[in-house]
Amino acid sequence: MxxxxxxxxxxxxxxxxxxxxxxxxxxxxxxxxxxxxxxxxVTASQIRQDxxxxxxxxxxxxxxxxKYLYEEIGKIMGLxxxxxxxxxxxxxxxxxxxxYMKFEKLGFVIVGLFDVDPxxxxxxxxxxxIEMVDRLAEFVHTHKVDIAALTMPKENADAVANQLVELxxxxxxxxxxxxxxxxxxxxxxxxxxxxxxLMQLSYNIVQSKDKRKA
Amino acid sequence: MxxxxxxxxxxxxxxxxxxxxxxxxxxxxxxxxxxxxxxxxVTASQIRQDxxxxxxxxxxxxxxxxKYLYEEIGKIMGLxxxxxxxxxxxxxxxxxxxxYMKFEKLGFVIVGLFDVDPxxxxxxxxxxxIEMVDRLAEFVHTHKVDIAALTMPKENADAVANQLVELxxxxxxxxxxxxxxxxxxxxxxxxxxxxxxLMQLSYNIVQSKDKRKA
Lengths: 214, 214
Known about the structure:
2 copies of one chain form a homodimer.
Chain A: H1 7-25, E1 30-31, H2 33-40, H3 44-52, E2 64-65, H4 66-76, E3 83-88, H5 92-99, H6 102-105, E4 108-115, E5 124-125, E6 128-132, H7 136-142, E7 147-150, H8 157-167, E8 171-174, E9 188-191, H9 194-213
Parallel strand pairs in A: 3-4, 3-7, 4-6, 7-8, 8-9
Antiparallel strand pairs in A: 1-2, 5-6
Helix pairs in contact in A: 1-4, 2-3
């Protein structure tokens, strides 16, 4: 059913999930699309359109059941099962990911950390012992691994990513500042390019300065 | 001139900049839109359309001058001047940003790190001494600060963000997992929501599993 849904819609779903989670924490049971719209600062028609992609959920004149909608969006996003993550690159960013507890609440559990630097070998981050990359194959064979986060330099990212896919890891969360060359492979990739994000910010800084001057 | 350009186009520009930088490193002086297209895996017509937003740069039958295009895109993105960044929240992620040298090559220089945890006070990351947040106002008054990166818990993010805008910081790179409430303020915000990115990945994992089964 959901095969045709655009990535733009999917990109908005985590935000719905976050807002609904907050409403749930506040004890709100029902919400109209107008109320949700004013909280989230998107139009009510956008909300209805987005949710209709998944078959609706609202009842005319009755609003949305917060808990039900929260759980359904969670299921759509695959949050009803645990995802095990290994992190390749145990530098600052890799360690930051491993230390970040909020991911676990969403079902994303970091189960392994790898690096090439022998100085890091044996160090533990929140119970995960840093292993050397040459033990990757053995680890993936003996553990369930759903996602590999690449927080390593871009130079080796392609090679490691392809090795991971061969080992049966079909999802990569890529922080390396490169577009991975995984053409024709059966793998999903989500990029977090921090430098790109900074550049977009600086573009908008220039624009807003121009506006201020005008 | 560039006021009407959509954020979708802007979001693609860092990628052009990255590819052109690599071509430059490889000593390539000219490139046709067809060649650039096959490298970047976007259509040549998309490339021409994107660049035409800024007035073109290509010569019919002659291709693009790599160095010129690289520099022009750099100027468009505001990379021709230095941007000073302060990081609020000197935990793992804040320290990871402060340690990341690649930002500096793009002109983004971290000049200060702040936290509320007295245990961190006085610790240095790449020459930046971690200061307590109560010294923020004094610091911003005596230093040029262009961007504040928020790598702190979401609970205080709104308050700190609003304080920063009052102090004259007009750009926020927000890692806190919340939409900042800065309505009507003269500020540009770029969000990096890592949990959202993970959820998008897990959605695509579910889809690709379904496809594999089908």
